[in-house]
Amino acid sequence: MAYFLQQTINGLTLGAIYGLIALGYTMVFGIIGMINFAHGEIYMIGAFISLIFFTLLGLLGISWAPLAIILVLIITVFFTAFYGWAVERIAYRPLRGSFRLAPLISAIGMSIFLQNYVQLLQGARLRTLPAMVTGGVSLFEADGFTVQITYMQIAIIALTFVLMLALRFLIESTALGRSQRACEQDLEMSGMLGIPVNNTISITFVIGAVLAAAAGMMVTLYYGSIDFFIGFLAGVKAFTAAVLGGVGSIAGAMLGGLLIGLVEAYWGGYVSGAYKDVAVFAVLIFVLTVLPTGLLGRPHIQKV
Fold this sequence. Notes:
The protein is mainly alpha-helical. Helix content is about 75%, strand content about 5%. The protein contains 11 helices and 4 strands, in the order ααααβββααααβααα. Helix 1 (about 1-30) packs antiparallel against helix 10 (about 250-270) and helix 10 crosses helix 11. The radius of gyration is 19 Å and the shape is globular. The mean pLDDT is about 85.
């Protein structure tokens, strides 16, 4: 039971990160009906930006972890948001009226471009960051095994919870949220009613990038090592989480992320760490076969 609880804590921490990335997928899909396959690379860029500025702050002598994390979070969000805006402006907006596969192909091309762009700038080797947040809380001990939740895990779960509340408030209680919900219903009619459709879509990409930036910074702190390829696998798993929860559902994206994190932790802990990715994608195949709309997704009704 102690080992199971430890794996549950690890899975929820990992799932919170996947959930934040999945929110970017589901928000974009909810408005324009397309999957942003460059979103995983936005998360990867956020991780690299955070590592660069953590290193710079260390060189400047700013070593107090809370201050450094807050400063780097603000800086990372700012720069990563620009990349999110650029992806929409370059890869999506010019092709919005084209056939449906065109934006998909463009997004995949943007993903490959961003991977190689970071590889050229930062190199292909693994980049590391010394641990900034150490220690944790021991919950209990059984049969010589101590169940512990680290301060970094607490910070990840807490930040995810805060961002989820902020996103829910934004969607449900602001003018931007009403514009996003209107665009989700009908882009053409929203434009006819005076809603700035282009700006709403751009801001949605920016919000997704902000969430990905937060996830990238937390992964950098949590694991202490990143490379230019981390965006691909994390992006695919976050997409799996979005599909599992129901693409287009905000709550479903977070639920799917948590479930994927738990599946990965349990499979890695009890079966085989080498095949935990296989378990994640097996879940995706099962859900698409049994429940194509996901756990909280709604069936798409085509009006005629």
